[in-house]
Amino acid sequence: MPMTDSPRLAIADDFLDQYSQLPRRIQSKVSELINRFHRDPTRNGLNYESILHTRDNRLKSLRVDQDYRAIVLKPKTGNIHLLLWVDKHDEAYNWAKRRICQINQVSGALQIIDVEQLQLTTEKLTRETPQPGRFEHISDRDLMRLGVPEMLVSTLRQVITDEDVEEILPQLPIEASDAIIMLAADYELEEIFQQLEKPQPAGKIDPENLEIALQNLDSLSRYVVITNDTELEEMLAAPLEKWRVFLHPSQRKLVERDWNGAVRVLGGAGTGKTVVAMHRAKWLIENRFTQPTDRILITTFTRNLSVDISNNLKTIVTPEDIKRINIINLDQWVNKFLKQQGIETEIVYEDKTDPLWEKAYNQVKENNHNLSLEFYKQEWKQIVQANQCRTLKDYLKVTRVGRGTRLNRQQRQYIWIVFEEYMNLLSERGFIESEEGMRNAIEIINMQDKKEAKYQSVIVDEGQDMSKTAFKLIRAIAGTTRANDIFIVGDAHQRLYGQPIVLSQCGIDIKGRSKKLRLNYRTTDETRKWATEILTGTTVDDLEGGVDTLKDYRSLMHGEKPIIRGFNSFEAEIEYLYYILKELRENKDKPNITCIVLRTESLIKKYKENLKEIEIEQIGREKGENGERKSIKIATMHRVKGLQFDHIIIPGLTREIMPLETILRKSPDPATREELETKERCLLYVAATRAKKQVIVTYHGTPSSLLIDSP
């Protein structure tokens, strides 16, 4: 941010939150005030009003109309004015009286402290008998280096239990929250400095220099200096879309830098992985791959997420730059690539492969040793395809780790007869499965000239659902290892489709470039706790042969606990849903995006028909979700992956529906059944963590075995 003598305006993310809650007529007046303020914050007509009894005399009031006021930080020196809050007169003044703005004298970040709330928290944490604090071994200066404001250091010294940690987290700036969560999870201080990239402070920090403070990475996570009218207009038009402007320091450090090779970023639901992926593409296309011929590929596992990313990326990338970013799910990319090579095949899925499986199975049924058709499908997927077995010889040599049914050599030979027939049926129709299509693409790319990569960078979302072959293809597409070549985000706790993989076995080396996002910016901590309890007892991988956990995964927001309601009949459940949906729809002053999320398409049809008096819009498979608040949405659990809503309602969570009984009945062995149950848990976790405000779960009859009481 260049220095300038002209008056300038910066806007806080909290201001945008509050602005979005105002009535439309007041928003219009505030917008007019901001435009005048932006043109010249020092003009006489703005009438800065002092606030009596404020703790920070730089905080001033600006009149919006007779009833509303905006709160501004008017600097003693310099030319940056900060727009911090807007509310009704008394509420705005009370907000200002409670707060102090300070520049952290170690980290250099601009921080706002709610002094009254801090006093309440301090009183709550203070014990009659003094005890050693959890962070007593950390110096004041190191705590401030981690982002803790000086005023909060003594309160932090009172923290002892995990409950104390959760009590103080909402009072901390977001950059400090990340660090304190890691300290509480027993990370070493130096490891935290390294992972969060907290540099040694450089010299004395000017406590009044807002210009320098607003260039600090931590400050950039909550303040933006307006550079032009268009930027201001776009921000006010979509105040809730803060992800377009603000990145948490841990996110920004992943996005805005050069990496000497492939990067893997893990993070629980709501940590902003997709946001990081999109901003990474924006930064690369604007700062590194700027030539007209440079190209970036963003690829996903599901088609609908690629549509959603495309729609969102267009809001932060210029029309010219977006032309150089190819956003497509991997199967679509393979289909197009093979056609460009003159190979006319069609990648097919269960709707077309299931009849072929039945035909192959029935033709050689006398040799199947009482093995179910589902066993053959799972054996094909988990052993044959995963290990690229193309001949009986390959299949006889491969190890079958993780499969519950033992097979001798003769049994494998009989089983291969069914596989061979299935492959013939595919070939006769010009069909190939996704795995075969990817292998064909890899072979073609490897035979081509490797001097120039097809894309300067490949960015992968939903990495946990990609197969071993998929990552080998991504390696081939990206070409030889080089700076900024591959960027992968994922979370195996949300794995709905794939199997555990090891990136290094796919030619992707992430050593020293494995990162993790820990803060959930979407859901309340009440929802996070309930959703993570669903996964209790499951073990997930880190895409590199290790184990990933959610032990240091936290939400900073608090709200209502999930509501779990059971009913004796379907009719009683529907009556309750009517009541809830009408209540949410009629709250027009604070519009909410609500989505009804169901396990299957047939359940969507059933519930939609019985709620027909309420306007409900289904989110289609191919259509991106635009986030409009005109109606209540409805979708399957798989479809809402990657989306977010204010309220999530999950009806029909009965014993037969989750885990889905029709799927479990097909399990050929205990190992497969356990894997399917784990994926059902992950699916419910995904559905619940789409909620920003609250989750409501209903059922009639016997509840799902996955359902737990709200904590």
Automatic annotation (TrEMBL):
<dbReference type="InterPro" id="IPR027417">
    <property type="entry name" value="P-loop_NTPase"/>
</dbReference>
<dbReference type="InterPro" id="IPR035093">
    <property type="entry name" value="RelE/ParE_toxin_dom_sf"/>
</dbReference>
<dbReference type="GO" id="GO:0000725">
    <property type="term" value="P:recombinational repair"/>
</dbReference>
<keyword id="KW-0378">Hydrolase</keyword>
<dbReference type="GO" id="GO:0043138">
    <property type="term" value="F:3'-5' DNA helicase activity"/>
</dbReference>
<dbReference type="InterPro" id="IPR013986">
    <property type="entry name" value="DExx_box_DNA_helicase_dom_sf"/>
</dbReference>
<dbReference type="GO" id="GO:0005524">
    <property type="term" value="F:ATP binding"/>
</dbReference>
<protein>
    <recommendedName>
        <fullName>DNA 3'-5' helicase</fullName>
        <ecNumber>5.6.2.4</ecNumber>
    </recommendedName>
</protein>
<dbReference type="GO" id="GO:0003677">
    <property type="term" value="F:DNA binding"/>
</dbReference>
<keyword id="KW-0347">Helicase</keyword>
<dbReference type="GO" id="GO:0016887">
    <property type="term" value="F:ATP hydrolysis activity"/>
</dbReference>
<dbReference type="GO" id="GO:0005829">
    <property type="term" value="C:cytosol"/>
</dbReference>
<dbReference type="Pfam" id="PF00580">
    <property type="entry name" value="UvrD-helicase"/>
</dbReference>
<feature type="binding site">
    <location>
        <begin position="267"/>
        <end position="274"/>
    </location>
    <ligand>
        <name>ATP</name>
    </ligand>
</feature>
<dbReference type="InterPro" id="IPR014016">
    <property type="entry name" value="UvrD-like_ATP-bd"/>
</dbReference>
<keyword id="KW-0413">Isomerase</keyword>
<keyword id="KW-0547">Nucleotide-binding</keyword>
<dbReference type="Pfam" id="PF13361">
    <property type="entry name" value="UvrD_C"/>
</dbReference>
<keyword id="KW-0067">ATP-binding</keyword>
<comment type="similarity">
    <text>Belongs to the helicase family. UvrD subfamily.</text>
</comment>
<feature type="domain" description="UvrD-like helicase ATP-binding">
    <location>
        <begin position="246"/>
        <end position="556"/>
    </location>
</feature>
<dbReference type="InterPro" id="IPR000212">
    <property type="entry name" value="DNA_helicase_UvrD/REP"/>
</dbReference>
<dbReference type="InterPro" id="IPR014017">
    <property type="entry name" value="DNA_helicase_UvrD-like_C"/>
</dbReference>
